[in-house]
Amino acid sequence: MKTIHQHTRINNIILGPLERPALQWLAAHMPAWVTPDVCTIIGVLGAFLTAVSYGWSNIDPAFLWLASLGFVFNWFGDSLDGTLARYRRIERPLYGYFVDHTTDMICQVMIGIGLGASPYVSFDVAILMVLAYVLLSGLVYLRTYVAGEFKISYSGLGPTESRVVAVFLNTAMYFFGVQKLTFFQVPVSIYDIAIAGIGLLLFCFFITTAVQETRRLARLGK
Fold it and tell me: What is the domain extent for residue 126?
């Protein structure tokens, strides 16, 4: 069993070859006043912007572009804070771990509520996706303690890919508006189907990883 200071970070995402050099370049060129804490705040504000913009899309679909911009700010702050701390050699492992992942869950809840308040996705479907995300997040944090691995990528997918998918969905919502299919005479939003699919995928990652980790620990007899 390893401490938070010693855990291995696993983030083998599809966009990693593009994201990692970009983050290193940004860390090297950030002015001194941009600290890891400032980046975290930017990430939270980006999530808040996305959430309220989803709500405002009831007034005008153009707010979906603002929601997508919020995802960019959220990526910038959430992805750069740790990279910047490591680049400047000012890591605070326990503080950074706690603050980063506490704010991350808050951000996802905000975004989920905002999405559910939009005219494109049902509130219950949005909340179910958030629950799946929180379950997987909790499992990630537990495995950091029992396995010494902080694994945030599954099948090449991670937070960055989820933001990219969200931006594509926002774009589709803007150009195509509310679109529904009929199943057994019941109208269902195609965006509900997409969000439910994402939630189901997250839940499958949760179940599969939980079962595998349980079996591993049982074999160890610990």
Answer: 4-220
- The tens digit of pLDDT for each residue in 128-168 reads 999 999 999 999 999 988 888 888 888 888 999 999 999 99
| Structure tokens that stand for 209 in this block | 């990883």
With H, G, I as helix, E, B as strand and everything else as coil, classify residue 91.
coil
**How big is the CA angle at 59 (ends 105 and 108), to the nearest 5 degrees?**
5
**What one-character DSSP code corresponds to residue 123?**
H
The SS3 assignment for 9 reads strand
Question: Is 111:47 a contact under the CB 8 Å cutoff?
Answer: yes
Q: What is the CATH number of the domain that holds 28?
A: 1.20.120.1760
Phi then psi dihedrals of residue 156, to 5 deg: 80, 5
Q: Which of 147, 41, 51 is nearest to 100 (CA)?
A: 41
Q: How many domains is the chain built from?
A: 1
Kindly state the tokens that stand for 151: 């694994």
